[in-house]
Design a protein that fits this description.
The complex is a heterodimer of chains A (291) and B (308). With 291 residues, chain A is mostly helical. Chain A is 73% helix and 0% strand. Chain A has eleven helices and no strands. Chain A has helices at residues 23-38, 45-72, 82-85, 87-107, 111-115, 121-154, 162-188, 193-220, 224-231, 235-247, 262-290. Chain A is globular. The N and C termini of chain A lie far apart (55 Å). By secondary structure, chain B is α/β, with parallel strands linked by helices. Chain B folds into two domains: 4-216, P-loop containing nucleotide triphosphate hydrolases (Rossmann fold), CATH 3.40.50; 227-287, YebC, transcriptional regulation domain (Alpha-Beta Plaits), CATH 3.30.70. Helix content of chain B is 39%, strand content 26%. Chain B has eleven helices and 15 strands. In chain B, helix 6 (166-181) links the parallel strand 8 and strand 9. The radius of gyration of chain B is 24 Å and the shape is elongated. Chain B starts with a strand and ends with a helix. The chains are: A mainly alpha (291), B alpha/beta (308).
Chain lengths: 291, 308
């Protein structure tokens, strides 16, 4: 029997027998979704304001530097020092976006929908950490890349800073992985957005203040070595000390870090803190999966 | 064929025993899991999804072992949680597509399946709006859609009628029935309301304090409790007395006398005694037993035991 054409049929329920990917695919999907979310993509318009604004602010010094190179024929800003100079903006980006990545899933109890699928809590943590690290990388690497492209085209006097630029990218990765992991662990401790933002900001401000005050006081008392060590309490300086040690770049603020043991100790501290942050995350989501 | 089977499954928390030596075997179709709040229904689902480790005992879901094959189970099973679990600032479509991808569906398939599934649960144009503005009924539908989007072979629905008004409840129950029949997906649905499972389920499991109270087909459930209810103009007391003397089990229920049907002789006794006492019959009605009666009987039995 032939059916008349042009009629819409309710074809009923259809089974799916196409491919079903594994955990790696699901992890990537969660990562992409979270990374986009960190910049407000796929979220309401007002969620885009903060990350986009911070992104633009991050680009400002690079743009100015290109202008300076072109007009005054001077060299670019320090590639390795860029993130340290802009640390307040980077910290605000982390503080506002890390809670978004992990907060709503807890606040609106979405986790059971995720953990009743093949992916495990570990997959969730990997995807979320990768997303915040990726977002931090973008926010830090984009300006220095722009500046480097500018330097290539403007071609100011002196050699091209290719090495510096690459060291800057490597440094940005160190910053991103350390700050991102710690930030997301702090944010995961509370389902509430405000508290999440506050705890990341507080972590940054307290370490910044402690480091600045202690190093200032110790310096005025002429305890120079001790003063240099206390600089490392600031997480940005801690990472900068590692890049100075590993990449041989100049200290971002022109103040030397403790020589000799300084670099290795800073690296050890960073690794320990990343370990602690991951332990917090694993503990948090193991519990969440079974509750 | 066994869809899921448990053997001596126990889960003890520091303060409470959620499951106590539970052994059940469930076949395809729609199975109701009934119990009061805190009877261990949600704990059982968590264990069956491989998310919670049982204290002792074993279980398989679709032939997969919960202890070692949790990931495989979660690939072919859908889960609708009891509580609210939807983020308000995304649309139903976005959420369901995203969750379909987390179940391993490629992007295009995820989109198609999400649109299909949302249509099947009855969400149309509103699926593009943020979930924050949805009614409870619409939220329940989204929760159901995400459990079905990856075309599972079995779905666990935890209290799907919670918070719905009578019309919404009927819609949801009809939908669950369709999932079990038309869609060909086995369903384990929990409820603390027995009545609503009668129309929906093929099989009912009753648990109380983590223990199995009863597991049987819906027909067995209601057949054993056939009753006939009689309303007479006056002389209800004498009628009841005479019936009891004749060996019938009689209970007064307001203006009604409810008589348990043992076999056809029960009907004869009702007819003969009513005629002998010359009573004016107002109503004579055969009642198919309701699942509640199973509980009522049990309560009576317990009450009796206590009195003795």
């Amino acid at each position: 029997m032939s059916e008349p054409s042009g009629v819409i049929h309710d074809i009923g329920y259809r089974h799916y027998d196409g491919p079903r990917h594994g955990r790696a695919y699901a992890r990537t999907a969660l990562f992409t979704n979270s990374l986009r979310g960190a910049f407000g993509l796929g979220r309401p318009a007002k969620s885009k304001i903060m990350p986009m604004l911070l992104g633009v602010i991050m680009l400002l010094p690079a743009t100015v530097s290109i202008a300076v190179m072109a007009l005054l024929r001077e060299g670019p800003l320090s590639y390795t020092g860029y993130a340290v100079t802009m640390q307040a903006v980077v910290a605000i980006f982390l503080a506002t976006q890390a809670p978004y990545l992990v907060g709503p899933d807890q606040r609106y109890r979405v986790l059971p929908l995720l953990f009743s699928r093949p992916g495990t809590p570990t997959d969730y943590i990997v995807a979320k950490v990768a997303a915040i690290v990726g977002a931090m990388m973008i926010i830090m690497v984009l300006p220095i890349t722009l500046m480097f492209v500018g330097e290539i085209f403007v071609n100011p006097p002196g050699p091209l800073h290719t090495g510096d630029y690459l060291r800057g990218v490597g440094g940005a990765f160190l910053f991103a992985i350390f700050l991102g992991t710690v930030g997301i662990a702090l944010a995961s401790l509370t389902p509430r957005r405000g508290l999440g933002v506050a705890s990341v900001i507080a972590f940054y401000l307290i370490t910044l203040a402690t480091s600045t005050v202690l190093s200032g006081v110790l310096e005025s008392l002429s305890h120079d070595t001790a003063s240099r060590w206390t600089l490392l309490i600031n997480p940005f300086m801690l990472v900068d000390a590692i890049q100075v040690w590993i990449f041989g770049s100049r200290p971002a603020l022109g103040i030397d870090y403790p020589s000799g043991a300084g670099g290795p100790v800073a690296l050890l501290a960073v690794l320990l803190l990343i370990g602690a942050a991951l332990a917090i995350l694993v503990n948090r989501y193991r519990k969440a999966a079974s509750s | 064929m066994s869809i899921l089977a448990t053997e001596g499954l126990s889960k003890r928390f520091p303060r409470v025993t959620a499951l106590d030596q539970l052994t059940v075997n469930i076949g395809p179709g729609v199975t109701g899991l009934v119990g009061a709040n805190g009877a261990g229904k949600s704990t059982l689902i968590k264990i069956l999804l491989g998310l919670l480790r049982p204290t002792s005992g074993r279980a398989t879901v679709l032939g997969l072992d919960i202890a070692s094959q949790g990931e495989e189970i979660r690939r072919v099973v859908g889960y609708m949680p009891e509580h609210d679990c939807l983020p308000p600032d995304v649309s139903a479509t976005e959420l369901v597509v995203h969750l379909a991808r987390l179940s391993g569906l490629p992007r295009t398939a995820a989109r198609e399946r999400a649109a299909d599934t949302l249509r099947h649960v009855g969400l149309h144009e509103e699926r593009y709006r943020p979930i924050g503005g949805y009614s409870t009924g619409m939220r329940q539908r989204v929760k159901l859609a995400q459990a079905l989007v990856h075309d599972p072979r079995l779905v666990f629905l935890d209290e799907p009628t919670n918070g719905l008004d009578p019309a919404g409840r009927d819609d949801m129950l009809r939908l669950i029935r369709r999932i079990g029949t038309e869609f060909g997906i086995s369903v384990l649905v929990t409820s603390h309301l027995l009545g609503e499972l009668e129309r929906t389920c093929d099989h009912v499991i009753v648990i109380d304090a983590g223990r199995l109270l009863r597991s049987s087909g819906i027909d067995d459930f209601t057949q054993g409790t056939h009753t006939v209810s009689v309303e007479v103009e006056e002389g209800q007391a004498e009628f009841a007395e005479a019936l009891t003397r004749a060996g019938q089990r009689v209970e007064a229920d307001g203006r009604l006398l409810v008589i348990k049907v043992v076999d056809d002789s029960t009907y004869d006794a009702v007819r003969d005694i009513a005629s002998d006492l010359d009573l004016g019959l107002i109503r004579l009605e055969q009642r198919r037993g309701r699942i509640e009666d199973v509980f009522r009987e049990r309560d009576h039995a317990q009450g009796g035991a206590e009195r003795v």
